[in-house]
Amino acid sequence: MTLEDEQRQDQRITDGPEPKHIQLSAAVARLATESLTPGEMIPSERTLMTEYGVSRATVRKAVDSLIVDGLLRRVPGKGTFVVQPRLESRLHLASFTQDMRRRGLHPTTRLISCEAVEPPPEAAASLGMDTPGSRGRAWALTRVRCADGQPIAVETGWYPASLFPDLDRRDLAGSLYDIFSADYGVLIDAAEQTLWGEAADAPTARMLEAEPATPLLVFRRVSHAAGRPAEHVVSRYRGDRYQVHMSLSRDDVSSS
Fold first, then answer.
1. What is the pLDDT of residues 1-47, one digit of tens each?
2. What is the pLDDT of residues 80-125, one digit of tens each?
């Protein structure tokens, strides 16, 4: 028996107190984290069946559990791949740039567009621009936010042109909050944020270099400076690269 045959025999799944699909799931997880890199394809179903001595049903159950856990991603017609580890965020008031730097990652930004427009109704309401005499133009700013060169989010925001004149002449590749503070004396000090999930449409998927219908985490933030509304922004994060952490206390739990 060759060394390769001995190694294959050592890794075969056997009957025991732990179900076979659980044993195989642990083995494939080790393979994905120790031997493969994000974006690499794991061995085919047939290869896993042969190397571990299990049925196709066992392989599919084990792989499906790792997909649910977010370690693997199945691409129809291509195979199953190791996913990029998710960035985790604690909900707090900070810019994307500050958030990524805090993690030790290098943030970059791709500017898609910046133009002065009449804001849509929802943004106008958030910015206090939906009443007679208060109508005006807002900067509509769309940017792709990246961490270590990988697209993480698409942001579309609206900012009152009266509060930020000539914003389009600024370098918008960094933190807007830093620009607001340094160039306009506007310090973002409070915000309300709403979170929901949706699937990426084709244009958003292209900007995020993702497959259409990729799950997204969507944040809508309305920010204020000294009580004045200054920002209405919707950020769409890749759900396979980003996750949110929340700490709950007893006071956060309702009586129901």
1. 333 443 444 466 777 667 888 888 888 888 888 888 888 999 999 99
2. 998 866 554 444 455 677 666 666 778 889 999 999 999 999 999 9
Backbone angles phi, psi at 29, to 5 degrees: -60, -40
pLDDT in tens, 150-172: 899 999 999 999 999 999 999 99
DSSP structural state of residue 33: I
Burial of 9 (0-12, 13-18, 19+ CB in 10 A): exposed
Which residue has better confidence, 104 or 186?
Answer: 186
Task: Give the strand pairing for 107-117 and 138-147.
Answer: antiparallel
The residue behind tokens 């129809």 is: 76
Describe the crossing of helices 20-30 and 45-52 by its angle, rounded to 10 degrees.
Answer: 110
Structural domains for the chain: 3-82 (1.10.10.10), 96-238 (3.40.1410.10)
Is there a contact between 106 and 147 (Cβ–Cβ < 8 Å)? yes
Within 10 Å of residue 133's Cβ, how many Cβ atoms?
5
Neighbours of 32 (CB within 10 A): 20
Kindly report the number of other CB atoms within 10 A of residue 114's CB atom: 17
Neighbour-count burial of 72, counting CB atoms closer than 10 A to its CB (0-12 exposed, 13-18 middle, 19+ buried): buried
Tokens of 196: 């929901």
Half-sphere exposure of 126 (CA within 13 A, CB side): 24
Per DSSP, the residues of 104-137 read: T--EEEEEEEEEEEPPPHHHHHHTT-SSTT----
